[in-house]
Amino acid sequence: MNKLMKQPIFRRLLPFIVFCLGLSLTLSAQNISVNFKNTPIKVVLKEITRQSGYTFVYSDALKELDKTITIRISQKDGDINEVLKRVFVGTGITWNLKGKQIALQNNVVKTGFKDSPKMKITGSIRDEKGEPLAGVVILNKANRKNTVSGPDGSYMIEGEESDILLFSLIGMMDQEATVGKISLMNVTMKDDLVVLEDVVVTGYQDMPKEKVTGAISSISSAKIEERYTANILNNLEGRVAGLSTYGGKTTIRGTSSLYAETNPLLVVDGMPIEGKIEDLNPYDIESVNVLKDAASTAIYGARASNGIIVVTTKNAKKKGVIDIDFSTNLTFYEKRNMDYSDNFYMNAAQQVKLESDYYEYYFFNNEGEVSDPVGSTESAIENGSNDISPIQYAYFQLAKGEISRDQLNSKMEKLKKNNFAKEYAKAIYQRQALQQYNLSLRSSSDKFQSNLTLNYKTDNKGVINAYNNMLNINYKGIYDITPWLTATVNINGIFGKTKEAGYDYNSSYTNPWALPAYESMYNEDGTENTFYYWYNGNKYWSSKGADGLYDLGVNIKDELYNNVQTTNRQLTRYHGNLLFKIVKGLTANVQYIYENEHNTTNWYANSESHVARCIRNAFTTLEDGKITYMTPRSGGMLRTTNTDGRYWTGRGQVDYSNTFGKHSVTALAGLEFRETKYNGTKALILGYDDQLQNSSTHTVDFGTLSLMRYSPYYMASSGGYPASQFVFDPYLREGMGVVVEQLHRFGSGYANLTYTYDDKYNLFGSFRKDYADVYGLNAKFRGKPLWSVGAGWNIHNEPFMKQYSWVNFLKLRVSYGVTGNIYQGATSYMTATSTGLNEYTNLPYGEVESPANPNLKWEQSRTTNIGLDYSLLNNRLRGSLDLYNKVGKDIFSSKTLDPSTGFTSMFVNMASMRNRGVEAVITYDWFRNDRHREFSWTTGVTFSYNKNEVTDVLNPSTSAWQLISNPYKTGYPTSSMWSYRFAGISNEDGQKGQTLWYIEDGGTTHAASGKSTSILEYSGQSEPKIVSGIDNRFVWKGLSLSVLMAYYGGHKMRALTENETFGVQYGTIASYFLNAWTPENQTGTPGIGRYASTSLGSEPSYSNMAVRDASFLKIRNIVLGYELPEKWVKKMGINRLNLRLQIDNPKYLWIKNKVGVDPETLGIRNPSSYILGLNINL
Length: 1178
Fold this sequence. Notes:
Shape: globular
Number of strands: 57
Radius of gyration: 35 Å
């Protein structure tokens, strides 16, 4: 963390942030100007809210608010209490001010205490978050005496045993409690607010819920804080109907494009950002609103087709003090399961037996099927490009008479006792631990609000010599500069550093399953073992390390220190907003956001690394018996990549809102401009020494190296080492040149209008036109008009509904609109890149990547949505139901071209698709924490069903493999799985043990990829049709228990594929080969060893025998929380203390496939994690 604190930008920002935080405590004045004649008090309060930001809460029973008053106030730098005194004079209304919230209630006369032998009952009153409640009226129903709680929530009232106390506060549910023998009574009250402006945040505007006509899911901070997640996206799973995070892909209401962006747009505090949702500090989020239909998303134009996630960060709530929150969560992961059987591999004994049986046949019982087994093995050893297993070599020695049968058996018994994965885990893995710390400082006054949040996260990644650290700093200040101008400043800085194992094309040292189960990390004398991978020589090769070449053996543990990649990341975001209050109901605001992300990746493979040795060996020549090294013999390889992303968005917007009797109008219009720029540089140094911070003076001719396809010296006897494939391309070519610059500009104009009549009927319309430089050759496609309309009916406000007292809220919504999407991988201009030197001419050349297409345009989605929102039975049962039909037009697809044009394909707007579905949200309070009980139980269920279908696509696939790799076909989902049809295992001579596949005429073949598409069958879709979440929360006194479950269903997967193999490969062997085909055991599993395939294809990986049902039901997490009693924490000088124990990813409840494959990993399940959490409020 200290290194992160040394970042220059942090040093520049810190003094400014601290100054702003302190300044908030010195500003407390409020400017309010109102002038009304014979106007209801409710209307006056709305204007005060608009000017001051104070929010009023009140009861429906408070009829005094319907009275009309005549009032004129022009007050500068005054106290809000003085304003309220003038508003409520003569009404009997009193108020309680808490931060920016004012609770209204009827005046209650306090009664004092007289000398009495009866006991004095004392205690404190808090809300469900543990915050003290001031102004609560406490009535003793026996003696009719009453009092009011103080600022800290404390109270004292006279009474005796068995008296019933009634606790009342506007905005909270009434609660009764019976006096016992003990005079201390602490009470927790539950929200029952009717908030004057209950709003939904859409980014461009905040709309009262009753006026919203779109499909929007809202998650509050209270729900977010119920469980800990390292990023906010995981906290939305199972809580937002229509949202899927399956397979690491985030979608809302299905996939909307074949090639273009499918992730939802992320909006933070009103402005779209380019950053990742994983970067957001989960402790600093006030609410998340997910916009799903066209009525709610169309205002975002060409980036709205995939849905919008709108995040609002927290503001200060306590006035006149610094509110301090500290939270920490420590996550410990269970050890990886390294059992071979659980990971679907043979254990050491099983693998030794399989290989022994094969090599017994190969060397001694081959019945003439193997020509010269000893000679061919000796040749393979000296070839250097082949892997030679210790079992193969032992049988080779036995065949040559170098060892006896007893010695062979002894070797096999020793190998059977080994457990490479277990030894690897002990040497390389460590207990993964993730630590996250958060400190928030917030303060508020009448004219200023300040919020500073610091979040630090560190993860050891569970591997030696690796970590991932990140510091996230966010400051938000809100300044009421004048009565007509408010300024908001938001500064966010993210500083991260990651260290991990470097890439190695020629070895799999980071994979414990790459080597046989019978291998060992250690030699018999206890020293660390050295391993050889394909084309790296082998342990028995006499030429390794000879004649000036370097031995390419790998010491796994050393390699994790010799070959390292570090990434430094710095992201800064500056967001400014000026709000001008022009006249009553009319405001204008100007916003600008600038993001700058810089990443530096250093990949350093030192002189001893396997990578550096491969480079030296590959580029050597031998002339006249003299070896010439074309690369430095000292030092290693340093490859540096710097990338910069600079993005800005500017917006100017005018808002109007007014009420004329029963008519209400809300409108906005604005202009928005955006630019994105991404570029970078690459640097490559050979012969670099990190300790000395210098490099070799050896001159490297990279042009000559690029032309060397095979090494003329290293492995010359076997045709030469593939220098280009194994070294130059993966290590050197990618480290040279520049990162291609991408610059795009966008401009938009937009407007929307909401009309409401009598708080019952809403009409909504929006329009936006986008322009982008991506499409510009044809003038008529430069701009894209996008629009939406919607209507809402607040049925509960109808007079005929008053007889149904059990209906608290009932609203019908309908909307239709057009949204868009951009694929930046396709442009109307011809594009070309430079790629290096031509291997035949040795001259620079470039490649034209795509032809010009002047007719490219935006993708578009036309969405119809019908929805119903409800709250019934005193708000005990609440939820929503939505039906939608989203039709995609002008979807990008790939069109095959005549090769004579110079291109094989190009992108065109020629596809169409459709997503239809239903979403339901149901929440029910089985028990409520009220005057009858201290226990509550709430269940929330989300359900979504999506049917995705490609309705039109030009897919000219003629071969089976083309359709498998490009699976789009009219009438089928975008995630269609096409499969070869398994016809069994061949028993024919020369083909025994090989897989067979059905072809057109009903016949069979071993090689089916080149056959026509008619031989394939549709096996289902890989994306879930059904996504559901079940959330149960139990609360008893200070204890809480939450259980979140997730269900994904209706989809398929390819897992535990029974692939073919040559002979017996050096590495782990899949456990399904225990049932491999033999003439005596004719199963459906391909043969191995003697009956292994002689020609391998991709057919088994894409066959119907590998398709399995992927439906599952899992518990995502179990959270046990405890809120310490107030009397305990007060003694410690703090306001609130909460403890949490959480278990993430326990064993799945149910999976539909019969082989035990986890559908989310396609193998063994991810380890569970255990989280200890602490939250303190000062």
